[in-house]
Amino acid sequence: MPPLGRMTTPERFWMKVAISDPQSCWFWRGAQLGKRAYGSFIESDGRRVAAHRYVYELAIGPIPDGLFVCHSCDERLCVNPRHLFLGTDLDNKRDMWAKGRIPHGDRHWNSRLTDEMVAEIRTSTERNCDLALRFGVARATISNARRGITRSRLSVPALPKSRGWARRSVPLQETA
Ligand SMILES: [Zn+2]
Q1: Ligand 1 center to residue 23 CA distance, Å?
Q2: How far apart are the CA of 142 and the centre of ligand 1, in A?
Q3: What does DSSP assign to residue 51?
Q4: Ligand 1 centroid to 163 CA: how many Å?
Q5: Quick one: residue 101, left, alpha or beta (phi over 0 = left, psi -120 to 50 = alpha)?
Q6: Separation of CA 27 and ligand 1 centre (Å)
Q7: What is the longest distance spanned by two Cα atoms in the chain?
Q8: Cα 165 to ligand 1 centre (Å)
Q9: Which residue has the higher pLDDT, 64 or 11?
Q10: Rounded Cα–Cα distance for residues 126 and 97 (Å)
Q11: DSSP secondary structure string, 67-129?
Q12: How far apart are CA 54 and CA 12, in angstroms?
């Protein structure tokens, strides 16, 4: 291994990644960015960037303005390029803002998702990432709603977290 100072930027990057088999998550082991807990990486020019965005550009290509790099695996610290895709649901989100379906100002998730929205999230086959964009909330909010961490009294059952949930649809149930 070359000394740190002689490493290329990509070499410095991969040093901080726990690479496993090609299909699994490759977890970032370096610093993390803020509360949202994405990997944090310092570019060659000194800029701090999100590790999953850096690896997307390294392995796949430039990120067009206004698009997000999303995780199909829902693991924010994963930097396996196979698990990354560009979020393209922004227009939909803007549309929802315009219609006033997303309240402004309050960051607490309870005030941002109505029971109807939670029911829709629980029956949706969309990915957390896409739903987060659509409803204009953090992905953790979607994930919590889905797993029933909040709003457990709703008649739509929460989903257990498992692979493949995104392809299943959940029937609505009556409450007892
Ligand atoms: Zn992953």
Answers
A1: 8
A2: 18
A3: H
A4: 12
A5: alpha
A6: 8
A7: 66
A8: 15
A9: 11
A10: 19
A11: -EEEESS--TTB--GGGEEEE--HHHHHHHHHTT-S-SS---GGGTS-HHHHHHHHH--S-HH
A12: 12
What would the pLDDT profile of 65-83 be if each residue is shown by its tens digit?
Answer: 878 888 888 888 999 999 9
pLDDT tens by residue, 147-165: 776 555 555 566 555 444 4
- Axis-axis angle for helices 90-98, 128-135 (nearest 10): 30
**How much is the pLDDT for 66?**
78
Compute the distance from residue 73 Cα to the ligand 1 centre, in Å: 5
Mean pLDDT check: name the lowest of 3-12, 36-45, 103-112.
103-112
**Domain residue extents for the chain:** 4-87, 90-167
Least Cα distance to 69 among 51, 44, 92 occurs for: 51
pLDDT value at residue 41: 95
